[in-house]
Automatic annotation (TrEMBL):
Belongs to the short-chain dehydrogenases/reductases (SDR) family. Keywords: Oxidoreductase. The keyword Oxidoreductase applies. This is Short-chain dehydrogenase.
């Protein structure tokens, strides 16, 4: 139980990577705030955690809403008595070049990936800094470090998360709060399944994802949860401002 006494907010924990992080942190004793919009999926994640003896609650939040995020941070601290770990994981990919993306689509990708990370940090960092303890884990992407075809807004938004992580680390590491970032490569989640299904040739799309890697397989959400656990563990006190690729070697290729 290496996260005993910790309370974690995990955005986008109703699905995929966020759900795996919520389950993994709970296995290590953290109390978990499962944050997302879909109540049914959120409550299912909470039930699964509780059935294994963990403690979790669902918080219905649109992470692009200033008001929702502020209320959520206040409610989590009231509900669990403290807050020590933030995982900014909620995200959205909309395909398109700068020519064919509409301003609304562009804005939506930025609000969901980047503004949400700012908002959750804006409302929770004062608390973490005051208690001089905390770990913030921002989920970027392989797309935050490389250019990908038809992913203009997503690449730009995920690169912004890398930059924001470094800036937050510079601002707050001296206050005892560590801020780190994970850049996952393709991970088998509903998000990726949607991308594959929407492609004109789904088999080819999957093959393309695979060919980018050194490993003969794609990632699973648990691979990213294990990396997030490393950043969350208080004993890893010397790690801050780090950008960790968990991508089957794609960046090295
Ligand atoms: N899968 C990959 O290959 C991959 C690779 C690199 C990076 N990533 C990043 O990893 C993160 C998780 O991706 P995933 O693959 O696990 O995706 P997913 O299965 O589609 O899950 C996305 C999560 O984000 C939440 N979300 C989206 N918009 C939201 C909003 N406005 N307010 C609150 N919650 C919102 C969704 O919750 P609700 O539906 O309940 O609102 C859902 O829980 C994302 O940031 C993604 O960009 C994924």
């Amino acid at each position: 139980m290496r996260l005993h006494g910790e309370v974690a907010v995990i955005t986008g924990a109703t699905s995929g990577i966020g759900e795996a992080i919520a389950r993994r942190f709970s296995e290590e004793g953290a109390k978990v705030a499962v944050v997302g919009r879909n109540k049914e999926r959120g409550e299912a994640v909470v039930s699964a955690i509780k059935s294994r003896g963990g403690t979790a609650s669902f918080f219905s939040v649109d992470v692009t809403s200033d008001k929702d995020v502020k209320n959520m941070v206040d409610s989590v601290i009231r509900h669990f008595g403290t807050l020590t770990i933030i995982v900014n994981n909620a995200g959205l990919v909309v395909p398109g070049t700068v020519i064919d993306m509409t301003p609304d689509q562009w804005e939506n990708v930025f609000r969901t990936n980047v503004t949400s990370t700012y908002l959750v940090s804006h409302y929770s960092m004062p608390y973490l800094v005051k208690q001089r303890k905390g770990s913030v884990i921002n989920i970027s992407s392989e797309a935050g470090l490389k250019g990908f075809k038809d992913r203009s807004a997503y690449c730009a938004a995920k690169a912004a998360i890398v930059g924001l992580t470094k800036a937050m680390a510079v601002d707050h590491s001296g206050s005892g709060v560590r801020i780190n970032c994970i850049c996952p490569g393709t991970v088998e989640t509903p998000m990726v399944q949607r991308v594959i299904d929407c492609h004109a040739n789904p088999v080819l799309m999957r093959e393309e994802f695979l060919l980018r890697r050194l490993t003969p397989y794609l990632g699973v959400p648990e691979d990213i949860a294990e990396a997030a656990l490393y950043f969350a563990l208080p004993e890893n006190r010397y790690t801050t401002g780090a950008i960790l690729s968990v991508d089957g070697g794609a960046l090295a290729k």
